[in-house]
Amino acid sequence: MNLNQVTVPSLNVEQSVSFYKKLGLKLIVEALPRYARFECLEGDATFSVHLVDSLLSGEGVIVYFETERLDEEVKRLIEAGISFDELPTDQSYLWREARLRDPDGNRIILFYGGVNRKNPPWRIN
Q: Which of 8, 9, 40, 105 has a CA that sits 20 to 30 A from residue 58's CA?
């Protein structure tokens, strides 16, 4: 199996489109007001947003986007007006992460895991 795409809910897809374009995703389907789909600039996965009547409560899904230029990307996004819950921080599991939320409160983590993304020292062989 290969991961094709992840879809998150939104109360305002147009507002989400603006946010995810600032994040750096490439808009490839724009079916406003109900749906939008993006390509990631690296790899083959896509990401979409769909209109819902109400958002789920609780923690929900966490979406991770990886970039080798994490600190530079965070700086660029702050300059573009994006707020972060947590600036880039080295984690005990050997990833560096920055945490934020999209306009609907969906949790987004920008990170760099390098070789440890799929091959941490504790990987099961």
A: 40
- Secondary structure in 3-state letters for 71-123: HHHHHHHHHCCCCCCEEEEECCCCCEEEEEECCCCCEEEEEECHHHHCCCCCC
Residue 122 lies in a domain: no
Q: What tokens does 89 get? A: 């921080």
Q: Domain count for the chain, please give it.
A: 1
37 contacts 29 by C-beta, under 8 angstroms: yes
pTM: 0.93
- Model confidence pLDDT, tens digit, residues 13-71: 999 999 999 999 999 999 999 999 999 988 899 999 999 999 988 888 899 999 999 99
pLDDT per residue over 75-91, tens digit each? Answer: 999 999 999 999 999 99
The verdict on residue 55 lying in a domain is: yes
Q: How far apart are CA 55 and CA 5, in angstroms?
A: 20
- Helix/strand/coil percent split, the chain, to 5: 20, 35, 45
